[in-house]
Amino acid sequence: MAKAIVIYETTYGYTETMAKAIVAGLKGKVGAAFGAYGFSGESVEMIYDTMKHIFEMDVIEPAFKLKSTEVVTIGDKEGKEFGMKIAAKIT
User: Fold this and answer.
1) pLDDT value for 31
2) 86 lies in some domain
3) What is the residue range of 35's domain?
4) Per-residue pLDDT for the chain (91 aa), expressed as one digit of tens each?
5) What residues contact 82, with CB distance under 8 A and at least 6 apart?
6) Which residues neighbour 29 within 8 Å (Cβ) at sequence distance 6 or greater?
7) Does 75 fall in a domain?
8) Phi, psi (rounded to 5 degrees) for 64
9) Residue 5 lies in a domain
10) Would 6 be classed as within a structural domain?
């Protein structure tokens, strides 16, 4: 059985909300980089680029990021879909 780990950091709880939705969409466990942002959101792209180009990982495209205001309105649906994309790659 494939296993995964979801690691995140959150200040206002938005990224935690995204993490829970992603986990709900997984079969087993998986690791991914994602995040909520209030201004520019460049950290998600930096993590994505590092995973893809430095560590040569098979990453889910495109990177999953939402503005903090979007997490409340559409985060669960998109988070579960992102989790299912990850699950499809590891099964």
Assistant:
1) 52
2) yes
3) 14-90
4) 466 778 888 899 998 999 888 878 877 434 577 888 888 878 888 888 887 887 667 788 888 888 888 888 876 888 899 989 988 988 7
5) 21, 22, 25, 32, 34, 60, 64
6) 2, 3, 4, 5, 6, 23
7) yes
8) -100, 110
9) no
10) no
Tracing tokens 């579960």 back to the chain, one arrives at 80
Residue type, 67: K
Decide if 44 contacts 64 (C-beta within 8 A).
yes
What three-state secondary structure class fits 6?
coil
Cα torsion angle, 25, 27, 29, 32, sign: negative
- Residue 11 tokens, joined: 């200040």
Q: Token match 């969409």: residue? A: 25
Token pair for residue 36?
């909520």
Greatest CA span in the chain, whole angstroms?
Answer: 39
Per the structure, the count of domains in the chain is 1
